[in-house]
Amino acid sequence: MGSESPLYSWQPKAVVFDCDGLLMDTEPCWTVAETELFARRGLPFGVEQKALVIGRSLPDAAEAVAELFQEPGRGPAIADELLGLVAEVVGSRAEAMPGAHDLVAAVASAVPVAVASNSPRALLEAALLRGGFTGVFPVSIAADEVDDPKPAPDMYLRACEMLGVAPGDALAFEDSMTGLRSARAAGLRVVGVPTLHHDDFPADQVVASLGDDGLVGWVRRWPI
Predict the structure, then answer these.
(1) Who is most buried in 36, 41, 48, 174, counting CB within 10 A?
(2) Class of domain 27-93
(3) Residue 2's closest CA among 214, 201, 222, 221?
(4) Where are any strands of DSSP class E within the chain?
(5) Name one Pfam family in it (predicted).
(6) Domain boundaries, the chain
(7) Model-level pTM?
(8) Rounded CA gap, 127 and 131, in Å?
(9) Which residues carry out catalysis?
(10) 3-state class of 1 per DSSP?
(11) Is the pLDDT of residue 46 over 50?
């Protein structure tokens, strides 16, 4: 991963970053909260259960969990329960992903940037504050601010509209298949930094981290 690719002969006019698992290492925070949510019901939380919720919006994840818990109709209540657990952990434990600050700074010095997160606004703000990204993104979109969050294209389409660029001229950074599908559906090219192992993560370029030498070198070649 991280070798030169055709993508690196192109330059975007704007860049949209995901947050959870991409800029901020919040997935462990979600895992702590989700483990507690399951433990309260005497259930284990492992890889199979994580795959059920990762990348989804909070309402969608809660509905899936409610079905698993055999608690029909309690999706909204479970979402509120999980949100409270996650907010507490994110505010005290979440850290920026390796290379995130340097890459965002390099990108933002060359092109307009945005963040588009499948978390609700309260969690997005908590994560950005904890990670030192407050005020970095002129455009910021949360899942509870669009009709259809990821994997629908709405968030990326709105981000591009607010940035004043066509989706085909924009680049997305994503760590989940849900986010990848959203960006693809909107027409953006995608750099993937997968949180979970995928034999097939069909991004235009897949790297192990935001500090990947090939990725950083490409961004630094963009004219400022």
Answers:
(1) 174
(2) mainly alpha
(3) 214
(4) 14-17, 113-116, 139-141, 170-174, 189-192, 205-206
(5) Hydrolase
(6) 6-25+95-220, 27-93
(7) 0.86
(8) 6
(9) 18, 20
(10) coil
(11) yes
